[in-house]
Amino acid sequence: MSEFILNDLKDIDSVAAEFLSETKGRKIFAFYGGMGAGKTTFIKALCRQLEALDTVTSPTFTLVNEYQTREGDLIYHFDFYRIEEVEEVFDFGIYEYLQSGRICFMEWPEKIEDLLPEETVKVIIEVNNDFSRTLSINNVSGQT
User: How far apart are CA 78 and CA 59, in angstroms?
Assistant: First the structure.
């Protein structure tokens, strides 16, 4: 398990760069944290580091957003907050996305926990008393 501390929002891009270096080669990321923990904000920073050309927004109502990078790669960003039944994700082809070989960032993955592939990198974002964030990363080596 690895940990990153984000003390101030001005440091988010350097933390995102470190995060991507630590998880290099990994494609599927599940972000856990309460409402307002900073999941979307951190995913925006990751997409900046990956040189996404599109505006990164929370896909709360669309369930999935697709962003293209400067090199022509695709990044998929999911938000499962509004999912009430796990079967809903089959309607838009969750497995095709997860097996695409593209980077997948997922918010509220606990809603589809049983569908997550074994190689999913689990990221827990906790808000500390001083409002800094601790990002704990599990399964970086491919082991749970």
Answer: 6
